[in-house]
Amino acid sequence: MKAYPSEQIRNVAIAGHQGSGKTTLVETMLYLTGVTKRMGSVTDGTTVSDFDEEERERQISISNAVVPIEFSDCKINLIDTPGFTDFQGEIQQAIRVSDAVLVVVDAVSGPEVGTEIAFQFAKNFNQPVLVCINRVDRENADFNRTLQQLRERFDDHKFIPITLPIGEQEQFRGVLGAVTQKAYYGRGETPDEPPAEMVELLEEAHLAVVEAAAEADDDYIEKYFSTGTLSIDEIRDGMRKAARNADLLTVPVFVTSGEIGVRTLLEALTVYVQAASGRRVGVKESLDSEEIEFLNPPQRDDGPLAAYVFKSYTDKFGTITYFRIFSGSLKSNATVWNPNTQTEERLTQLLLVRGKEQVPVDELHAGDIGAVAKLKNTRTGDTLTTKDFNRIILPPTFSQPVYAVALHPKTQSDSTKMGSVLTMLTDADQTLHWYNDPATKETILAGMGSMHIDVAIKRAERLGCGLEISVPKVPYRETITKTASATYRHKKQSGGAGQFGEVSLRIEPISPDEPFQFESEIFGGAISAPFVQSTEKGVRSVLEEGVLAGYPVVGVKAVVYDGKEHPVDSKDIAFQIAGRGAFREAFMKAGPALLEPIMTVEVIIPEANMGDIISDLTSRRGRILGMDTIGGRSVVKAQVPLSEIQRYSNDLRSMTGGRGVFTMEFSGYERLPSHLAEPIIAAHKTENEG
């Protein structure tokens, strides 16, 4: 592949619901542009995009695949994204580095939750949307119905068909071009005259395109009013501007199935998607900085270097880092600066990638997408720049994880590898997190759904670390509900120097959000100052291990108000033990209770599912905070105990047929009802006695 200047580069994310035909569409583009000699199959595991072993086994896309093609003297970097909502982080990263989003919609199923996610992420990054209504040759496919559903679902957008189907279902044989007013049969290599019965429809579509294009440019409006028409180049330029206009929100719509309509779509990607040189990108001095600067177009090779890492792929051979150069250029063996980690990186051989294929190149230009191997301190989401420029490209903001598992290494060898392997996985995927929970003493892996986690576990195994999973323990907290006091004497005499310490302690409830407080009301030297400190040390040692059920203690203030010491036998350890004992006894008198974590959830579902979702959340001890309807979708906000929704992503998928999504954030702690707390306390007691 020859080198292309940024004016001839187009970066396009291919997004949409799972099963809408994104990967097959990319395969068709590869075939029609001569990159491949035969089309690959998702079912057979022979597609260029789905090269990962997990993708071939599951027959779905689970990560972004960069697929460059050449068409009409342009390089089009296609990024094939997953359709499964568990992998929404991949979709966001792809849109972050693209200049337009091609949303693929199945003509049978119509717009689904994956369609909505693609539109929302495009909006988040201010990227224009093009729509491809796909598979119109299938039974029950209906282009007009799907177009109307899109208009109803996204009623703030203006959907303008650029191509229309000639026939539908088994009669589909070509497309009409609303701009050129020609018909394109089969592969569409040569234009033809439209069918006589469709001429009137085509004229209406042409008029709609001209009006939409004119609306984006004052000069075009003036010409349209004076002449009643625009040239083909003016229409295309106007539609490109209209698609990028946040007020107009114009969406060019295309129709495809198999090879039909794809050549017209390819041409559209070169004329309706802005050149890579036209992208404006926001940068900061640091992630914490309030001020955003902008690298304004045109982006050129001689501009300041600003490349964004949007993907890392690790296997047993090492890590490949994928990036887009927003500004400047990169050469093989150059030294660059990572401002996120404040480290220098020495680049090895630069690569152009197409699926798993890697082509060495000496240089990559502004606007292009490439890869490099063996970076030591660079993760997904980082920026590569120069030490002089030292700016960070703004990364996406991701939703909090909604699904978590506890990890258990299969062998001692796996236990040794676990930390480094998990770090590799989470460095590559910013929606995946791992941590050690001090409350439950478990290692937790959290992500966006059960499939997301399952894929991560399989990848860990391929990296040499076997892991088993379980439902995480709920990180309860212990607290008190009233004030209580206790006196505890520790006395030990076994020949020689003994141990003696007596502590009188009062504990009082405070807000669970406040840090633990320790005070002394000792007057007159009943306990000397060093032993008061020893008492506090003993009390604090109980806070992490708990008293009631082995969970951390919160919402408590402790006051030592009396005690006794011995001139010979009193020592630090004696008062630590006495402090522990007094605190534990007072705690059990102070109305001890368990607190449970409460999560704020926002569930987005079809309106038809609203009643079932509210009923289900209520059955999970949830409190409904509010309901709304946005773009034909119902939004339910509620507060629900974590213990009740640890597997909610699976349940929601079942209840809505995969059309529901939700977000979840920690809200706070509330008292666990006693009938639910009792078995937890009893189980802890049995475990300790055992």
How many domains, as an integer?
5
Overall geometry comes to: elongated
Q: How much helicity do the residues have?
A: 25-40%
Sheet bearing the most strands, described? 7 strands, mixed
Rounded radius of gyration (Å): 31 Å
Number of separate helices = 16
Q: Reading side by side through the largest sheet, how are the strands ordered?
A: 2-3-1-4-5-10-6
Summed up:
This protein is an alpha+beta fold. It is built from 16 helices and 36 strands.
Description of the structure:
The protein is of the alpha+beta class and 690 residues long. It has five domains: 6-276, P-loop containing nucleotide triphosphate hydrolases (Rossmann fold); 281-393, Elongation Factor Tu (Ef-tu), domain 3 (Beta Barrel); 403-473, Alpha-Beta Plaits, CATH 3.30.70; 478-591, Ribosomal Protein S5, domain 2, CATH 3.30.230; 595-675, 2-Layer Sandwich (Alpha-Beta Plaits), CATH 3.30.70. It contains 16 helices and 36 strands.
